[in-house]
Structure formats: structure tokens, C-alpha cells
Here is the input.
Amino acid sequence: MTTKAIQGYHLIQPEDLTWRLSNLMRIPNADYLERTGSENLGARLWRLPPKSANTLHKHVRAEEFYFVLEGVGRLRVGNETLTVPKYGGVLVGPDQLRQVFNDTEAEVLWLILGAPEELEFLPGAQAKPNMSLIYPVDPKGLPPELAGAVWPPTE
Here is the structure.
């Protein structure tokens, strides 16, 4: 399966966004590009509540750019923990294990861009993704900074 470029442009207004909870970690997020048909780029807002974490993961091909819009971001990449100020960003290669987390009492809003899209996750993909490549360790494992925290919340 090869990716194709979109034709023209797509304007996405804030009211067009649909917020949902992520499957594993229950983090509110909104996908900017789901309606555009882009097969090259992913862009999603992630609103991390206090004392929460997203999945511990890596990618097969995609680079990801993490950008803090509100608050002070925390990101673990490999064995390092990075503190990212408002309007700061971090580019992470596909082979690096990474996890966005929030060990503060204030919500943090991230914009995360990824490219190229992992073809196995696109609608209509022929091949199923090998999840052990994305989650080589427990994806729900929390960073040491959240020791004692309980996340994701139980329903």
C-alpha cells in the first residue's frame, strides 16, 4: 500500500474537532486530520489531566513531533525524562520508546504530529499491525515520576 497526497487543502475549525478518550490510557484527544483523508501525516491534540500518562510506545516508521500548547510538558524518551516548556517541542525518531505524562496538578495540552503514517493503521489496510513493535513493553507502565499514582482511571 502506498500513500497518496491530498488534493487542495482542508480548513479545520476548532468546532470541527471531536474529542474522545484514548483506548488504553483514557486520555482526552482530538484528531485534526481524520476527516481530511491524509495518509502522510497525523496530528492530534492530547489533553493530559493531572497525574496521568499516555502509552509507553514507539513506532515502526513514524517520527513524532511533540509540542506543548498549554502548561509544562513531561516526556520520557528512552531512559531520559525531558521537561518541555509552553511552546517548546521535541522531535522523536521511530525507534525510541516514548511516553508523554503529567506529574503536575495542572492540565497540559500537547499537539503531537507524526509522519509518515503507519500504513497498517489506516482505514482499509490489508495488513494488521504487529502491536509488539509498537508496544515492546507494557504500554500502561507509568514513569517513576508517577510512582503511587493510579492511571488509567477505573470506570
In short: The chain has a mean pLDDT of 91. The first helix runs from residue 131 to 134. The chain is about 5% helix and 35% strand.
